[in-house]
Amino acid sequence: MARKSVIARNEKRKRLVSKYAEKRAALKEAGDMEGLQKLPRNSSPTRVVNRCSVTGRSRAVYRKYGLTRHVFRQLALEGKLPGIKKASW
Q1: 55 and 74 share a domain?
Q2: Same-domain pairing of 1 and 41
Q3: How far apart are CA 37 and CA 50, in angstroms?
Q4: 41 and 71 both lie in a single domain
Q5: Three-state DSSP class for 85?
Q6: pLDDT the model gives residue 9
Q7: Fewest CB atoms within 10 Å of the CB: 2, 47, 59, 66?
Q8: Which one, of 47, 74, 77, 52, lies nearest residue 62 by Cα?
Q9: What percent of the chain lies above the pLDDT cut of 70?
């Protein structure tokens, strides 16, 4: 499980992205690159990391489910993910 400080930092980035989204779009449309540089670094959407909603792990996260491969497999085998079953052919 990821440290709580790392998870909190990512949540703060998400808040900043939503706060500055309109302003960032207006500056991009106007072509004001100096104005964009003056905005906080963490207000850029590319700085937000996909993390598992259960463990906070950043690697091997399935976007559709918001879970890492470990948690996804565990929940799928327990039958807690509707429509998911182990493949056999």
Answers
A1: yes
A2: yes
A3: 24
A4: no
A5: coil
A6: 93
A7: 59
A8: 52
A9: 100
Q: How many domains are there within the chain?
A: 2
Is 62 in contact with 55 (CB distance < 8 Å)?
A: no
Q: Residue 1: its pLDDT value, please?
A: 77
pLDDT tens for 44-85 read: 999 999 999 999 999 999 999 999 999 999 999 999 999 998
26 vs 21, 61, 63, 84, CA distance in Å?
Answer: 9, 32, 28, 42
Its domain, for residue 75, covers: 50-89
- Considering the domain architecture, whether residues 18 and 35 belong to the same structural domain is answered as yes
44 and 1: one domain? Answer: yes
Are the beta carbons of 78 and 69 closer than 8 angstroms?
A: no
Q: Averaged over 11-36, what is the pLDDT?
A: 94
List, as one string, the DSSP characters of 5-74.
HHHHHHHHHHHHHHHHHHHHHHHHHHT-HHHHHHS-GGGSGGG-----TTT---SSEETTTTEEHHHHHH
Residue 86 tokens read as: 């182990």
Backbone angles phi, psi at 72, to 5 degrees: -60, -45
